[in-house]
Design a protein that fits this description.
One of its GO terms (cellular component) is cytoplasm. By secondary structure, the chain is α/β, with parallel strands linked by helices. The protein is built from twelve helices and eleven strands.
């Protein structure tokens, strides 16, 4: 295992204290990955569970992301990254912002949050939310892109790292094709799968065309693309923030919870709460 720590608040005293807490071997030093990211090589790490618990507790108190990462998990060994879109690659939940155009954002956002926490099934939540959008002008979708949609911090750095290391990128979203295709083009992703809103005469009908992309569908797309590329589960990672991302995470070597709901953080391999998406590259980097 190597110990990866990252966060804008990291200073030398933090590293010294973490080094002490980790019971690192004598003479071992933190290696710098990026401006606010460091790791202790596996040769320096002890296997004491009490040490890792102490490190994690300290880092949490100081708003530092930390992770114990197996040596085999590196950018060179990953071949497919599967990613959620809303609140993961981008800064918004698109459906909530569409609803804001109709002055019903609170009602829709409440359903969104309940689904993200795993309190109601995603298919039911999406059906209920989309129904509320009946009659909205199609032009509102472009307004969301023009006025509100932004990439989350570090998104382009992360995707560039994927390209540099030959990692294929797949966006799988319970959101909508209109936005997924925009994000795919903007970031230069390899593949994208999402839902399609029914639009008739320039207006949303309140329905989704075809099968809804829910948590199981996300996992199915992961497996399908993995098999098409001739990869094994040990060559795939999955990134998300909501309960509907958990099934796909279980199909991957590692699941990364990005600024995620507690239920996702509890079940993911790693959680990033204080850094951007570039932190994923740092997790799997050995310089």
């Amino acid at each position: 295992m190597r110990l990866v720590v990252q966060g804008s608040s990291i200073q030398l005293p933090h590293l010294m204290h973490i080094h002490q807490l980790s019971n690192a071997k004598q003479g071992a030093q933190f290696m710098q990955i990026a401006e606010h990211a460091y790791y202790l090589p596996h040769q320096a790490i002890t296997s004491e569970a009490s040490a890792s618990d102490a490190v994690k507790a300290f880092c949490a108190s100081e708003k530092i992301d930390c992770a114990y990462v197996p040596e085999t998990q590196t950018l060179k060994n990953i071949k497919l990254a599967v990613m959620d879109m809303d609140s993961t690659l981008i800064n918004i939940e698109c459906i909530d912002e569409i609803a804001d155009m109709m002055n019903i954002k609170p009602q829709v956002a409440e359903i969104t949050e309940s689904a993200m926490r795993g309190e109601i099934e995603f298919k039911e939540s999406l059906t209920r939310r989309v129904a509320l959008l009946n009659g909205l002008e199609e032009s509102a979708l472009q307004r969301v892109i023009d006025e509100r949609l932004q990439l989350n911090p570090g998104a382009q750095v992360w995707i560039d790292a994927c390209k540099a290391n030959g990692i294929k990128t797949l966006l799988v979203s319970g959101g909508f094709e209109f936005f997924a295709n925009h994000v795919k083009a903007k970031l230069g992703l390899d593949y994208a799968e999402s839902n399609t809103l029914e639009i008739i005469d320039g207006k949303l009908t309140g329905k989704v065309l075809g099968e809804i992309v829910d948590g199981q569908a996300k996992a199915d797309f992961l497996v399908q693309k993995r098999d098409e590329l001739g990869l094994t589960p040990n060559q795939v990672i999955a990134i998300g923030d909501g309960a509907n991302d958990l099934i796909m995470m279980r199909e991957a070597l590692a699941g990364i919870a990005y600024h995620a709901k507690p239920i996702v953080q509890a079940q993911a391999s790693y959680a990033l709460n204080h850094v951007g998406l570039d932190g994923i590259a740092h997790l799997f980097s050995t310089i």
